[in-house]
Amino acid sequence: MQAAQNEVANVRSNIFITLVQLDKVRGERAVAGPQYQAFTNQVGRMKALAKALGDRAEQMRQRGKAYFSDWEARTAAIQDPAQRRLAEERAGERKKSYDAINRSMQDARKNFIPFVEELTTIKTLLEGSRDEQSIAQAKNLFMRANWHCIDVQRALMEIEAEFDTLAASFGKEQ
Fold first, then answer.
1. 3-state secondary structure 38-81
2. What is the tens place of the pLDDT at every residue in 39-89?
3. On the CB side of 38, how many CA atoms lie within 13 Å of its CA?
């Protein structure tokens, strides 16, 4: 759970870095200047992160039912009625958080893909001459990338909040 939460925090940090680089490259007039190169490097990182987040989202979607089926079987085997009731309550809390994380992961994945595609298109547009026409063409993409970024960031923050809720639920057992 901690590894997944760290992964989400890493993605959020890299999105911020990417936006900073995007902002810097917009003002750079030289073709393939240092800001452009930093932006290009960051776009490469974002592609890798988008794939990893997509893979994680798919894993969570696939593993959730099996995890909670196993949990239900273990809970049903508890002999003490008070402990069984407590385990059932915790299972309900955890299922609710897991489902919220899963929904937010799917939402993040859905918005992350167009965000990275827009960044890639911006990169391609800016590879050529930095004339007013190429900058104007990229301007709409900047705006759409920012919108998708906000959606991805919101979903990632929701995931982090649910991970905190899960950690608190597991902490009750300590």
1. HHHHHHHHHHHHHHHHHHHHHHHHHHHHHHHHHHHHHHHCCCCH
2. 999 999 999 999 998 898 888 888 877 887 887 888 888 899 898 888 888
3. 15
